[in-house]
Design goal:
Elements (H helix, E strand, L loop, with lengths): L1 E2 L20 E2 L5 H11 L3 E5 L5 E6 H9 L10 H4 L6 E2 L5 H11 L3 E5 L5 E6 H25 L9 E4 L6 E8 L2 E3 L6 H6 L2
Parallel strand pairs: 1-8, 2-3, 5-6
Antiparallel strand pairs: 3-4, 6-7, 8-9, 9-10
C-alpha cells in the first residue's frame, strides 16, 4: 500500500534547512555564560567543543534547568562540561529531512548537529527547522499525487492510497482519486467506484 506520506518523495537534505551559524563554548564555560549566550542570540542550544574544536556535547535550555535551576546551584559555579548532553548525536549534511526527523524521534532529541566531511560542525538542524518545512512537503506530496492522478487517465485507484478523505476528513486505508480529490469509499460517488474496479 502506498501512503501519501511517502519518504522517497521527501529527498530534501538537512543542509537545505539547517542553521549554519552554530554557537560554541569550551568545557570550562560557566552555565551563566552559556545562558547569556543563548539569550543574547535567541537560540535554544550551544555546542561544547574541546581545544581542538571537536564537538563533544550540547547544552540546551533543558540542561540548564536540570543541572542548575532544579538542583538550586549557582550558575557561575556549574561548567558546560558538567551539564552538557553527551555523546553528541550528529548527522551528515546529505541526510534527508525525514531521516533527520526519524533520528530525533528515535533518540528523543530536538537538536541534531550536522558535521561536514572534515568532521567539523557545518550546521544545526532543530525540530523547529523541520516543523517549518514538513507541512510544505506534505502539501507538495499531495499535489504531486493529484497531478499524477490527473495525468494518468484511468490509472488512479489501481493502487491503494492511505490518508485523510478530502470530504469527511476521516482517515482511510484506501482512498480513491476523483474529481480532483482523494475520497474514502463512503464519500466517493458510485460511478467513480465502478470505474476504479
Amino acid at each position: 500500500m502506498k501512503s501519501i506520506f511517502d519518504e522517497k518523495k521527501f529527498e530534501m537534505a538537512v543542509k537545505e534547512i539547517m542553521t549554519k551559524k552554530v554557537y560554541t563554548v569550551l568545557p570550562g564555560t560557566s552555565a551563566e555564560e552559556c545562558a547569556k549566550l543563548m539569550i543574547e542570540n535567541r537560540i535554544g542550544s550551544v555546542v561544547v567543543v574541546d581545544s581542538k574544536d571537536k564537538s563533544i556535547g550540547i547544552i540546551t535550555k533543558e540542561n540548564l534547568i536540570k543541572h542548575v535551576l532544579a538542583v538550586n546551584k549557582k550558575a557561575d559555579e556549574v561548567t558546560a562540561e558538567e551539564m552538557m548532553s553527551a555523546p553528541l548525536i550528529t548527522a551528515s549534511p546529505s541526510l534527508t529531512v525525514i531521516q533527520a526527523m526519524q533520528t530525533m524521534f528515535k533518540d528523543g532529541i530536538r537538536h541534531l548537529i550536522i558535521l561536514g566531511t572534515d568532521g567539523k560542525i557545518s550546521g544545526i538542524c532543530t525540530d523547529t527547522d523541520i516543523f517549518k518545512v514538513v507541512p510544505q512537503l506534505i502539501l507538495l506530496e499531495q499535489e504531486y499525487l493529484k497531478v499524477m492522478g490527473e495525468n494518468k487517465e484511468g490509472s488512479r485507484g489501481k493502487e491503494d492510497i492511505a490518508g485523510y478523505c478530502d470530504d469527511c476528513k476521516e482517515y482511510s486505508e484506501s482512498l480513491i482519486f476523483g474529481k480532483g480529490q482523494y475520497l474514502c469509499k463512503r464519500c466517493v460517488p458510485e460511478e467513480l467506484i465502478e470505474s476504479n474496479v
